[in-house]
TrEMBL record:
The keyword Transmembrane helix applies. GO terms for cellular component: plasma membrane. InterPro entries: Multi_antbiot-R_MarC. It comes from Sulfurospirillum barnesii (strain ATCC 700032 / DSM 10660 / SES-3). Its main location: membrane. It is found in: Cell inner membrane; Cell membrane. The chain crosses the membrane at residues 12-33, 45-68, 80-98, 119-140, 146-167, 188-209. Keywords: Cell membrane, Membrane, Transmembrane, Transmembrane helix. The lineage of its organism: Bacteria, Pseudomonadati, Campylobacterota, Epsilonproteobacteria, Campylobacterales. This is UPF0056 inner membrane protein. Belongs to the UPF0056 (MarC) family. It is a multi-pass membrane protein. It comes from the Bacteria.
Length: 213
């Protein structure tokens, strides 16, 4: 049982961390902030953004099956749609087009002064986007046992911790990896996300074809 738990934990952690891409979103966070942002303020933003994505995770985890049943959506249909969303995200990651648009200095100053910046857009949808939303519902719907549910929760908390550390140390990450290094990591994560997306699509389509044909 412990072997199955750790296998699921490893699988879920790799899947979610590839989709979230902590190094990539930390670079986006820095691009949204002015150059004179203090380390203390970055720490505050990191903590609040991390709490945002943790709360969002548990909301989706607890309400996901209810929403599927409410709208009469089959999990395999969601796998196909979620796979398409992930595939589009993966293409953007590989092409390096996930970076934020240029802002004026006035907009940057307003962003750093506004506490909601940590929640929207940094927490949602930059870090916790549609791809993460769909993936959590799919993983939750595929495995209903307590063992897999515990592995999913722990895996996400591990990913949330990695996001916090990436945000908190984003200045040092950029210093040592450089912009090019961060882009390389994001492109590699994009390839993994693309492979996960294809698995979701193929798995969902194969079941739907057998069901309706």
């Amino acid at each position: 049982m412990m072997v199955d738990f750790f296998n699921l934990l490893l699988q879920y952690t790799i899947t979610i961390i590839a989709i979230v891409d902590p190094l990539g979103v930390s670079a986006i966070m820095l691009s949204l902030l002015p150059q004179n942002t203090t380390k203390e303020h970055i720490n505050k933003i990191a903590a609040k953004a991390t709490m945002t994505i943790i709360v969002a995770f548990f909301v989706v985890l607890l309400s996901g099956n209810f929403l599927l049943n409410l709208f009469g959506i089959e999990i395999d249909s969601l796998k196909v749609m979620g796979g398409i969303i992930l595939l589009l995200t993966a293409i953007k990651m590989v092409q390096g087009s996930m970076e934020s648009k240029n802002q004026t200095e006035e907009e940057r100053q307003e962003a750093i002064k506004n506490d909601e910046f940590s929640i929207i857009p940094l927490g949602i949808p930059i870090t916790f986007g549609p791809g993460v939303f769909a993936t959590i519902i799919i993983l939750r719907g595929e495995h209903l046992e307590m063992l897999s549910l515990s592995a999913l929760v722990l895996a996400y908390l591990i990913v949330a911790l990695s996001v916090y550390l990436a945000f908190k140390n984003s200045i040092y990450i950029r210093k040592y990896l450089g912009i090019t290094g961060q882009k390389i990591v994001s492109r590699l994560m994009g390839l993994i996300v693309g492979a996960i997306a294809v698995q979701f699509i193929v798995g969902g389509v194969s079941v739907l074809v057998k069901h309706y044909m």
